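Proteins fold reproducibly. Take a tokenised chain:

. . .
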Amino acid sequence: MKILIADDHAVVRKGLKLLILESYPHAQVEEVANTEALLSEVVTKDWQLVICDMNMPGRSGLDALSQIRQIAPQLPVLIMSVYPQEQYAVRVIKAGASGYLGKDSLHEELPAALRQVLKGKKYISAEAAEKLADAVQGKSQQDAPHESLSDREFDVFKGLAAGKSVSEIADQLSLGVTTVSTYRSRILQKLQLTNNAALIKYALEHRLFDQL
């Protein structure tokens, strides 16, 4: 069994590898540090599972997920992040991921997540499952305006909420400054906000960024 880990922090990759080998001692586990290397590996090799960080330099994990769905539609992808599972799991599952893991609970959740995903099933927490059920019923967009954002708008939203400038976000996402400014305007309009300060307050109130 071949498993690919994508994360820009070496210590996270090493820790994940150890956890995987505890459950699957004979697995072949390889590592990459960015989305470009991840996509190259997916194109050139066969994998049974990809575990990908949601936020890496350059293109985000959601961007990588979209590309993987085109390259290898049947390849299971587990997305992990420091962000709250109940807020982000719905978005990544709807984008085509096989599951979502919070980095603060990897040690407890990874073994169960691996078993589920390698059986061809989805893995999310009970809280995220309830939120996903609401999304299927069309409730979540009424309750949470940020869930109406596209994946790219959401990437820009995260950068703005983290206090980054438009030019910093443009560099991070490999976009033009004008393009990011356009996304910012759309985001503020969709969330009915007037400026970046209000956007940061919104992110905090909705527990989207526990680390802020």
Remarks:
- The two ends are 38 Å apart (CA to CA).
- The first strand starts at residue 2 and ends at 6.
